Amino acid sequence: MAFVFALILVALALFATEAVPVDVTAIAVMVALMLAEPVTVTLVDAGLLADPLYVLHRPGDDVSPLTQGLSGFASTATITVLAMFILSDGVQRTGIVQILGSKLAALTGDSETRQLGATVGLVGPISGFINNTAAVAILLPMVTDIAHNGKISPSKLLLPLSYASMFGGMLTLIGTSTNILASQLSAELLDHPFGMFEFTQLGVVVTVVGTVYLMTVGRWLVPGRIEAREDLTDEFEMGEYLTEVVVREDSPIVGQTVREALSETEFDVDVIQLVRGDRVFLEPLDPKSIQPGDVFAVRTDRDTLVDLLDAEGLDLIPEVDVDDAELESASEQQNLVELVVAPGSSLVGETLVSSNFRQRYDATVLALRRGRELFRQRMDRVSLKVGDTLLVQATADSIERLNVNRDFIVAQEVQRPDFRRSKIPVAVGIVAAVVGVAALTPIHIVVSALAGAVAMVLTGCLRPQELYDAVQWDVIFLLAGVIPLGIALQETGGADLLADLFVLAAPGLPGIVALGLMYVVTAVLTNVISNNASVVLMIPVAVEAAQQLNANAFAFVLAVTFAASTAFMTPVGYQTNLLVYGPGGYRFTDYLKVGAPLQAVFAVVTTLGIAFFWGLAPA
């Protein structure tokens, strides 16, 4: 037991700090459990250790420790979540969400009330049936454009977008991966898995209450951090970092390539575009030979510019504003966009240099925003994180490629020619069939979901090679890694001990207060670590505590499940919060200011709702 608790503390610290990716932490936990078990079992068998520190399975059990340690990969929850990612992607690729969004956008105009209502009203129901992170990723560009077109700060809409996707995910079993994992744990501990619409009535109540909060109190608490823009360079405050220089006749760099002369120098400078006569060139610029009279638009700071002019034989072109119009003069199409680093991106932890960003994507990064922090110098030294927003210039073709790249979310609407709109009825029908079969027949959700995933390919909604891109593998490995930790916590008596402490901390409290306390403890935990990890750790404790309090254990399981999906108070508590962190220009404290009251309201509403719908008396 001591080993398991020590491992949990280390895991919590790593989950909270993200010193390594959370999925890597989960796999390391799984490996630690499997390595520790054989030693302690051998000692127990030999009679040398009367009170083992950690025994995943007692001697004589039918299931081997290795099998139990790897059980997360065979878990119905893990496989169901994997299948749901595929189903969600099949729906996304039809473009139906974008169609719904564009129709709503046409109705909102410049009214903040209508914009906010459309945002919350669209993402909530959608999140009940497709992955909520995917829903936010799809709708983020639409919501950003709605705000700017209506002259409203996108910050006023993006945080509500994230929050509404979270409580919308509580409408059905398949709304979030957390629900599916909680269902499996409930089945193992109470022989009571969740039905498809097991808690929909409470989900509707929570969604209505959350919507009212966001439309009233939340509307005034959400700050307008980003001004409604007409110019991206103004939004990123690039005025002092963009300029144009011309190559003198006697410049030492004449005849050299851009790479030799400017890209690979010690100067902190990026060449954005080249003007030669009447022609304007964008990336790739590195191979081009420099000629006298060439005009370069560059990103650099003033001190570096002075040194660059002297060293490279360049002259500053005075009284030139390098703004959006100037930077987009090379093309009739949009070539200046914001890119958001997506969850699971291969660039997370990399820098612009180590990822070879410029050459890899034929795009130039002009600035980087992380919350309210702006980087416009030495960006090549900054390790990228999920939610970082990059101001990028590239050709229209490069932007189209970036728009379909799963490493990024383009924060403005870019027309995608590859939507399979003819497949909309098919994809929607497949998801409806999966939901209907799981809800109305004895067939397990994992079977119907896998069948639906196969149907997506057989009907052409997805191509076979797109299956692997559809899955968020970091979530799958996170689930596979933390599930054995929950088993270990339960079987070593750790859950019993934590339940004892919980009961001792609340002596003589009414059952409904204890239920609310369980909700609050889980909600605080899930704002710091992964929501899936919170469910794995807290559901065994909730079941034991309910049994000691002679209360309805299923009610306590539901309290943990709902609390784990309400990570409103920090940007790191949920992936959707990270997705809007950069584009909204938020501060860490914004989440606390807006999310804490909402968390408190939900604690009361959810607790009362569970008591009303399911009761607190033991079944």
UniProtKB/TrEMBL annotation:
Entry GO terms, CC: plasma membrane
Alphabetical GO biological process terms: potassium ion transport
Signal peptide stretch: none
Residue ranges constituting the RCK C-terminal domain according to the UniProt record: 230-314, 322-408
Cellular compartments annotated: Membrane
Coiled coil (UniProt feature): none
Keyword match Kinase: no
A UniProt-annotated Pfam family: TrkA_C
Membrane-topology annotation of the record: Multi-pass membrane protein
Chief site of localization: membrane
Keywords: Membrane, Repeat, Transmembrane, Transmembrane helix, Transport
GO molecular function, one term: monoatomic cation transmembrane transporter activity
TM region(s), chain numbering: 70-87, 161-182, 202-222, 426-458, 470-489, 501-522, 553-574, 594-617
PROSITE patterns: NA_SULFATE, RCK_C
Entry keyword Transmembrane: yes
Protein name: SLC13 family permease
Organism, scientific name: Haloarcula rubra
